[in-house]
Every structure is written in C-alpha cells, then in structure tokens.
Amino acid sequence: MSIDRLDWDTLRVFRVVAELSSMSAAAARLGESPPTISRKIDDLERSLGAQVFLRSTRGVELTDVGKKVLRHVHSMADAAETLRRETASTGALVTGSITLRTGDGLGPYWIAPRLSQFHKANPKVQVRMIVGDTEPDLHGQEPEIAISFSESRPHDVIAHKLGVQHYVGFASAGYLAEFGKPENIHDYHNHRCILHTSYVHQVERWAPRMSELRRMVDFAFITNSGTAIAETCAKGGGIGILPSFMSVLDPRLVPLELPELAPVRFWINYTERVRRLPQGQALIDWIRQLFESPEALWFGDEFVHPRDYHEKVHELHPQKRRDM
C-alpha cells in the first residue's frame, strides 16, 4: 500500500461519495465532473490496494474495507476541524456578509439573542437573517445558509442535523386558573388553542399525535408569527403550541404537565461554495457549536420537560450554573 500517495482531497471526495452513495451526486455537490470523481476513487483504491466501493447501476456501496476507511476519514476530518477552530483566532479577521434563512422560532428566539457571541469572534462579518417559510435559494448569487425542517434536499446541498425541536402546550397562569388544566391530549378540545401555520407542515411529517390533535381541535387562533402566539398565550388567550425552550425565555408562559405533542428534526444546509467562504465557514461552525452547548439540551433527541430542564443540565454538566 502506497500511503505516500494518499492526500486529503482524495479522502474528502471519498467521504462525500460514501455519504451520498453516488459518484454523480458527489460530483454535483463538489462542483467537479463525474469522471474526475471516479478517477479520484480509482486513485484511492490503487493507493490502498483494496476496493472501497462496490459499483452498480443503482450507485455505490461501501465494502468492508471502505467502511474501515470511512471511520478513519471521519476521525481525520474531526481532527482537522478541531485544528482549524483552535488556530482560527490567530489569523486575520474574517470579513464579508452571509445570509441565514430560518424559521420563525429558532432564528428570532434562539439564534439572534446569541449572535453577540459570534460577533465577538467575527466583528467584521455582517449576518443577514431572513425569517420565513419559503424555500431558500442556496444556489443564488448571494451566499446563504438555511435552517430547514425538511430532510429532502438536492444532492449538491450539504446538510448536518442540528437537533430536534420539541413542541409542548403552554398557557398563562391566569388562563389555567380560569379554565383548568388539560389532563391529557383529548382535553385540548375543551380549550382555546393557538397554532403556528408552519407547524402544520412540520408536524405532519414527524408527529402522528399532533395530526390527531389537529383533527380533534378547532383552533381558535392560527398565525404565522411566533411572537403573536407567545403574546396571545401569555395574556390569557389560550393554550399555545410552542417549542419547549420558550419556558426559559418568557416566564409568563406556563408549560402544561403533559408529554410533548411533536418532535420535529431540523438541519443546517449550505453548498460547498458557501462552505469555502471564510464568513460562511465561520457562521456554520458557530451555529453547529451553538446547538452542541449544554444549554442546547432542549434540542436533544430525548424530550426534556421544561420542569426538568435545570436538573438535567446540572446532572449532565455539574460545572454549569443552575440559572442557565
């Protein structure tokens, strides 16, 4: 095996082909031609002296050797990323502008309040946040990053799962005192309920329980504004269906003592072109780290009820203050 012939560019191509199970899809993502991708895989196999992919008309499949190589390539990529992050602050300041497209919840309520952290490290980067439900144009002239609740995407769009947004019912203390607390999901039909229009499409993909609720409940208020839901709910307007993390953002909102209504997965999406931009890579790294922090326990695969949040953070991260 000629290890001297191995280079990171070839291994990076191998990693993308393995992820997409297709050389043509990898070529589209990386902006190279399919013959170039095929040649690089051939070079890798010659260097290793072993076959890493089984090829067929349906695409490619990793061999046992390929699976071992992929594990090592993942480790190398993680090490390279750690090195880049640890040395980035010693170089010149990153400059430029970047657009982040996001929905009405995560963007305004979770990311925007923390952007000062990003700008401390990147004071010369302008971030434009576009909030809405329309599909972003990641191939436009303006470099964009998008947070999406949809798993489907073009082959040339890179995506990393950021987490799961857990939806629960909230009400004001005054509303609950006047109308009582729902004892289970079937009790919702006895209450005024408030729903975000975008949740309708998100939850139908992932949450049969929420679809059941929609059939049972005649919602009193439906809006495309998270702020409108939070304010209406906080002022006694009804039970709002909101992300679980809202309990630490607005003390007027009382989480119901019921299980979650819907877990909805979400991803960060961008193209290779944007990733190669210093300002693009900087924002991508920061957002991914943001959803890996201890306070991002809200977005784990396991639902943590708001009443248990501080205790869970303290259990997993005892060095963190309980007033997070």
Class from helix and strand fractions: alpha/beta
Overall mean pLDDT stands at 84
Report the count of strand segments.
11
Portion of residues in beta strands equals 15-25%
The helix-strand sequence is HHHEEHEHHEEEHEHHEHEHEEHHH
Rg computed from alpha carbons, rounded to a whole number of angstroms: 23 Å
- Oligomer type: single chain
Task: Report on the biggest sheet.
Answer: 9 strands, mixed
Which word captures the global form? elongated
User: Can you count the helices?
Assistant: 14
Distance between the termini: 52 Å
Low-confidence stretches: none
Helix content: 40-55%
Distinctive features:
324 residues, nine-stranded mixed β-sheet
Overview of the molecule:
33% of the residues are buried. It is elongated, with a radius of gyration of 23 Å. The protein has helices spanning 8-20, 23-30, 34-48, 64-88, 106-111, 115-121, 173-179, 197-206, 208-216, 226-234, 246-249, 272-276, 278-290, 309-316, and strands spanning 53-56, 59-62, 96-102, 125-131, 144-148, 157-171, 193-196, 221-223, 239-243, 254-255, 262-271. It contains 14 helices and eleven strands. Strands 3, 4, 5, 6, 7, 8, 9, 10 and 11 form a nine-stranded mixed sheet that branches. Strands 1-2 form a two-stranded antiparallel ribbon. It is of the alpha/beta class.
